[in-house]
Amino acid sequence: MRNFTADDPHRQEEKPQKHVALLIETSNEYARGLLAGIKSYIRTHRPWSIYLGEHSRLGTDLSWLNDWRGDGILARIENKEIAEYVRLLNVPTVDLSASRLIPALPCVETDDETIADWAAEHFAGRGLRHYAYCGDPSFPWSVQRERHFERIVRRNGHTIHRFQHESKSTVMEERMAMARWVGQLPKPIGIMACYDIMAHSLLEACRIAGVAVPDQVAILGVDNDDLLCNLSSPPLSSIRTDTMKTGYMAASLLDRMMAGERIDPQVWSIPPLEVVTRLSTDVVAVDDPYVSAAVQFIREHAYEDLKVEDVLRAIPLSRRSLDHRFRQALGRTAHEEIVQVRMKLLKRLLTETDWTLSVIAERLSFKHAEYMGVAFKKFAGLSPGAYREKHSGTR
């Protein structure tokens, strides 16, 4: 093996380590997911020297960076003060906020249109005909989600009700105002909250108003903060965003910028992963008691090799009558409902466990992993392995 000396012309110079500041809070699940995606990128590429201080979503104190002389920034630029500070530092930066306070920067964010579309579809699949949105106008991403949600709901022939967070109100003032609003809404109704913390407040408002969740009000959050969702009463359904992929892509773009590549100031929108259904939306708001009972039966037996014939043994109807009632109430047949419930369960096992396909097939009562793969590809357009790889966050 050849040893290179310091003045050897063939000696490869080591690239200096890059110094990167992360202006990202650690107080919520979404931001922690971004940091996990950034960490995943760093582990598979040349390490960075990371600077991460205490920082809230709307914080403006960046004094911990006063003497910093770094190479790049990954930031959620949510206010004008942070935007001005980033401009003064004048280093390659990737924005992770929908606020777009510095339009000249490349930006990686969640796909709010798909999030709103999935929320509307989730409520419609439960037979709900009334819809509402609970947001915070101080965040542009909340406004965008509301706009998309309203457009989709109106396109489907329904009206929408709104509650807007008032920043000047105390916690109790807002909670009581929210309780009055919930009490006046038509029932049953599905409410999309702009994120899980707002959804948690809604659950408390429903308790104050004496409104039953999910029977009268179904509540869906965004971000799937596992701790918050499972501490709620009842447990909170939520849309799981692909924060790992978002953080990973932002880190990849910054690495290219620090290497001298020019990146266009466009927005990369990362679609969500799934709707994680918990008790807060576990309702079938249909007038047909047979369909309601059948859907409940399907959910309770989703881990089994379930057939329509099994449902018919529990529901005293003919196959033709059951499918007619399903189409009238939910727009799909009983068989399609079984496939949808089982495939969504399979998606969760693919992304939330490291089980082999054979183990998952056994848990879901498929005769063979190969048969499970064919059924899943027909439903999702990808093989189980490809779906797991796509949503691993490191692609």
Automatic annotation (TrEMBL):
PROSITE patterns: HTH_ARAC_FAMILY_2. InterPro entries: Homeodomain-like_sf, HTH_AraC, LacI/GalR-like_sensor, Peripla_BP_I, XylR_PBP1. Keywords: DNA-binding, Transcription, Transcription regulation. It comes from the Bacteria. The keyword Protease does not apply. Gene3D superfamilies: 3.40.50.2300, Homeodomain-like. GO terms for molecular function: DNA-binding transcription factor activity; transcription cis-regulatory region binding. The keyword DNA-binding applies. Residues 292-390 form the HTH araC/xylS-type domain. This is DNA-binding transcriptional regulator. It comes from Paenibacillus hemerocallicola.
